[in-house]
Amino acid sequence: MPLSANPNYQRIYQVVRRIPPGRVATYGQVARLAGLPGHARQVGYALHALPEGSDVPWQRVINAQGQLSLKRFDGREIQRILLEDEGVEFGPGEKIDLQAFGWRPID
DNA sequence: AAGGTGACCAAGG
DNA sequence: TCCTTGGCCACCT
Q1: A20: how many CB neighbours lie within 10 A of its CB?
Q2: pLDDT at A4
Q3: Nearest nucleotide, C1' to the C-alpha of A36?
Q4: d(CA A10, C1' C9) / Å
Q5: Which end of chain A is more exposed for a tag (fewer CB within 10 A), N or C?
Q6: Per-position b or e across A56-93, b if 16+ CB within 10 A of its CB
Q7: How many CA atoms lie within 13 A of A78 on its CB side?
Q8: Can you list the pairs that A69-78 forms with residues at least 24 positions away whose Cβ atoms lie under 8 Å?
Q9: pTM
C-alpha cells in the first residue's frame, strides 16, 4: 500500500486540488482546511509522498514565510518555474507576497 | 524499538 | 530582516 493512499493524505490532496492556478497556500493553511489543524508537517510529508505525474498541484503549497520549502535546489527550481508560468511573482529574497498571491478559499 | 529527521510554524532576540 | 528556539508528530532507521 503506497503511503499516498493514507486517508489523511487523501484529505490533504483534496484541499490542494482546490487551490486555483496563480495562487498559493501555506502548509499550515492546507492542514487546517483538511481538518488537521496544527499538522503542517504532515502536509509536507503528504506532498513528498506524491507519485510523479499526479493531478495534485503541489507547487502551489509554500511555507508561512512566503518561501519555497523544498530542500533540494533542483526541486525548488522546478517549483519556481511552474509558479511563474501561472503568473505568481517572486520578490526580493525569493519571497512570494502572500497578501497578493495567497489563496482565500472564499470562492 | 528507541532515537533522529524534516517540503512546518510562531515567537523572540 | 535574519537567525535561533521550542513545540510538533509521522516517518524512517
Answers
A1: 11
A2: 84
A3: C9
A4: 18
A5: N
A6: bbbbbbbeeebebbbeeeeeeeebbeebeebebebeee
A7: 9
A8: A69/A27, A69/A44
A9: 0.95
Q: Are A56 and A50 in contact (CB under 8 A)?
A: yes
Return the ∠ at Cα A6 (arms to A1 and A58), rounded to 5°.
110
Q: Rounded to whole angstroms, how far apart are CA atoms A79 and A63?
A: 13
Task: Name the nearest CA neighbour of A66 among A24, A34, A21.
Answer: A24
- The pLDDT of residue A106 is 81
Q: How far apart are CA A43 and CA A52, in angstroms?
A: 17
pLDDT tens digits, residue range A15-26? 999 999 999 999
| C-alpha cell belonging to residue A21 | 492556478
User: Tell me, in Å, how far CA of A68 is from C1' of B6?
Assistant: 14
**C-alpha cell of A41?**
508537517
- Which nucleotide is the nearest neighbour of A46, by CA and C1'? B7
